[in-house]
Amino acid sequence: MIKDKIKAVFWDLDDTLWQGILAEGENIEIFAERKRIIEQLNHRGIVNSVCSKNEYQTARKKLIEFGCWEMFVFPQIAFQPKGEMIRRTLKDMNLRAENILFIDDNDANLKEVEYYNPGISTLISDAVSEDLLLNPNLQGKPDQNLSRVNQYKVLEKKTSAKKESISNYEFMHSCHIKLWLIPYNDSYFERVYELSDRTNQLNFTKKRMSQDELRDMLSDDQIETMLCRVSDDYGDYGIVGFYSKHNNRLLHYVFSCRIMNMGIE
User: Which of 27, 51, 198, 237 could bridge 10 with an S-S bond, Cβ 3.0-4.6 Å?
Assistant: First the structure.
């Protein structure tokens, strides 16, 4: 059951993304319908990852052969418990279990992942069809340029480099983080609404508004709204947060989870 708005989908490989078991040397054939689902989700700003018990290089080679490798971020391919792999990956991606869907052909794996990641949504692979794209919690937001996939690929590269550093402070200093505060204008409305509506972990004022309510607030000359843009040596993160205040009282103070542990807030 899909319980909440989904921001990322984790796919098993054997008998889920493709038919057959790679480690047993079977003739592997990808499920074309499921590849199309992944493509559609990416274009909705819902990123996709892999969680599979396989040999990494062998599975990577097969995914490249099927033209799928670049469709995934933070792939987890190892002979390790899947529940732990996903839990570690969600920490690296700065995502909550409640916003994740895990798909596998083995019910025991689904139960294990649920145990290690309370609140996660799971789905047996036999239930996957293109009707999945009709689920209201998988609608996302149009992202034809795959900006969210690319942003997570930057984060993936950065996370790998971070693990080789002595300390988080040393790593952040080496990244040459730059921050700009930009006055709001209407060209940023959709991004501000998205931050206000979708952000949970770094939504410090915890206020939700309809689009009309937000427009009214942003058009009020007595309310100051500033946007936060961030970049570092790994890439440009774009508009990652905003604040709104009236008479020195914060009305909104919201940041994307992508900049968690960067000290931006």
Answer: 51
